[in-house]
Amino acid sequence: MHPDWLSNAYLVADEEGGSAVFVDSGADVKPLLAAAERWRVEPSYVLRTHSHHDHVVHERELGLPVRTDGIEVGGLRVEALPTPGHSDDMIAFVVNGEAVFTGDTLFKDSVGGGDLEQVRTSVMDVLMKLPPETRVLPGHTEETTIGREWEQNPFVVVWRGAQPEGTDRVRVGGEDATLIVWSPDYDGGGKAWVRYDDGRDAIVGGSRVERG
User: Residues 8-35: pLDDT tens digits?
Assistant: First the structure.
C-alpha cells in the first residue's frame, strides 16, 4: 500500500503452476517482485482496474502487458466485470470465483465517488451478486468480504432498503442539501451521499460536508 495515496498493488499467484498476475501498480512493487521470486512464480500480466494515476504509476517498471479483460493464466481464471461510476473504465477482477479486486468501486464500509447511479448499479447489481464469502480486495486499504459489506456498508444497507435515507440538513460547497448516507472512508475523511435542494444527488468527500 502506498503510504500517502493508500492505494494497493497486488500479486496473485498459482504457486503450484508457477503462474501469477499483478493487479494495479499504485504502490511500491519491489515487495511484490520479491514475493514472486520467493514463490518461484512468473508474472505474465498487470490487471488494471482503472487508469487513475494512483493505480498505474509503476506499470512501466513492471514491464508487462496490461489487461482489462478476462484471462486464464495457469491455474488462475480471471473474470472481468465492468463496474463504471468512479471512472468510465473501471473493471473488477474475480479470480477463481474466490476473490474480487474492486478498484475504487467498493471499499470496506464505503464506495467510490463518481456518478451516483452508476456506482449504485455497479455495487448492487454486479458486486453484491457475488457469493457473500467472496474476498473483496479494494484499490485502497483494508480487505473485506461481500457478505460483510452487504450487512454493514452504510451505502449498501440504504440501497437495499434495510435502513431509511438520512434527513439531516447540511451544506456542501455553499449549497443546502440533505445528508442521505454518511460512511467512514479509507482516508479517514468520510464519504457522503447528499441530495441538493434542487434534486441532484451526489457522492462527495466528507470534508466538503458542513453540518449544523
Answer: 999 999 988 899 999 999 999 999 999 9
Helix (H) or strand (E) holding 20: strand 19-23
pLDDT at residue 186 tops 90: no
The single-letter DSSP state of residue 28 is -
Residues 180 and 110 both lie in one domain: no
DSSP-assigned states of every residue in 74-99: TTEEEEEEE--SSSTT-EEEEETTTE
Q: How many CB atoms sit inside 10 A of residue 28's CB?
A: 15
Kind of pairing between the strands at 42-47 and 66-67:
parallel
Q: How many CB atoms lie within 10 A of CB 30?
A: 10
* CA dihedral sign of residues 66, 90, 55, 108: negative
For 7, counting Cβ atoms within 10 Å of its Cβ (0-12 exposed, 13-18 middle, 19+ buried), the class is buried
C-alpha cell at 185: 472512508
Same-domain status, 103 and 134: yes
Q: Which domain holds residue 63?
A: 10-163
Where would I find the beta strands (DSSP E) of 110-187? Answer: 110-111, 135-138, 144-145, 168-172, 175-183
